[in-house]
Amino acid sequence: MKILLIFFTFYLISAAEKDIDVTGYSGGSVLVDSGELWFSDSVKYMAKLPEWRTIINDKKHNKWINDGKFTLFQNKEGNLMIYIRDLNDRDAGEYWIGVLYKWGIDMTLHVENDLYGKVTKGVMVNIGETANFSCEYTQNHINDVKIILKEGKDSIETIYSRWKTKERYSISDDKQKNVFHMKIFAVTPDDGGVYLCGVWINRHPYSYYIITTVDLHVSMPPVVRREGESAEIFCPYDSIYKSKPKSLCKGKCSTRDRNPLSETVREEKETKTDRLTLKDDVTASVFTGSITALTAEDAGKYWCAVTLETELNYLHTHLMVIMNEELNFTKYEGDDVSIQCKHQDEDQKSFCKAHEASMCVKDGVSLEMIIDDRFSFSDEASAGVFTVNITDLREEDSGIYWCGAHITTKVTLTVKTDFTLLNIICVSSALVLIGGFSLIMCKLNLFLYYVI
Asked: Which residue has the higher pLDDT, 61 or 266?
């Protein structure tokens, strides 16, 4: 009862000044500009009605207040913004949002289940390439303003709209298909991050965005070397970081679970361990990690990091080590084959058909994605291997495969037709037709052999 009284008092002293009506779509998000000032030194409060279930009650005066899928923050105009992610039916209903002693609003959120905002959730692109992603919208939003925003550390910035454009960015709207396309040219490490893609609804004195999320991952092209060779991992960075310590990290590289490869390197200094050298070239704004005498253990995902208030992993690449031992299999159509691949625990089990190993980083197919029931695999994690089994081989299965992800082995598979069996069938057929001319046609892969 006491808690309810506190909520009611908060409601009265803040006074509900206006109503906000917002519509979102299941699986998407909404971003609402309340049209009311933030007031940095005042308590922010958000509750779900009618039970007055507290969602946010912030007394620390942070610029970005987050609780699960709910966020309150201050935009550049000084207004309080309301951000609700991953909408579902349970999020629908009334909310009360207010600033103590200043203002309060009632917001009604409608969540519709119409198909909206189909978007590629994760986009991978290498530095210097063009990033592409698309956002669908429903017919009733065909004439609304299309917009792209980006999440920052404690804000959300408008990247592109009718009123704000940027070099290297472009939007094209296909109103016949209800989809607009976003392109970012000559991608840099700073372009990576979470983008919000959607439409803007103006309901003066408030407005809101109906959005879906795109996670843009920027990486360097894979580094592919053979066992025993040397590899260089290049980490370009923005010139504003030239005086900051940098490091190279292998694996997950979260702030909590870091695996730095050596001491950090600062400016023109060089650090060196047994097989690793880090050097920072501030003139070119790039630091380099060099690893000699590569082994299977060196293969993996590497992060370039710069030390700010915390460790920032801003760019990654894959180091693929090709084992010197190659596998060669020669089989006949209809045979089976088992191929054993080396595997690291954190790797996706990959079996890729391609001319070059580097193509498998972006275009390789994980074994879980193979829909051909002739392919199967068995995992022996304790032994660090997995086995690919292919049954009922066909000639089109011939080619070069790369077995494993970061530790990769070249596999050459040759599938032949059994000519002996074909000849027996043809000769046997000819002998049956004794006493006259006969025409026997034996077909072998698009080639016709005629026997008279």
From this structure: 61
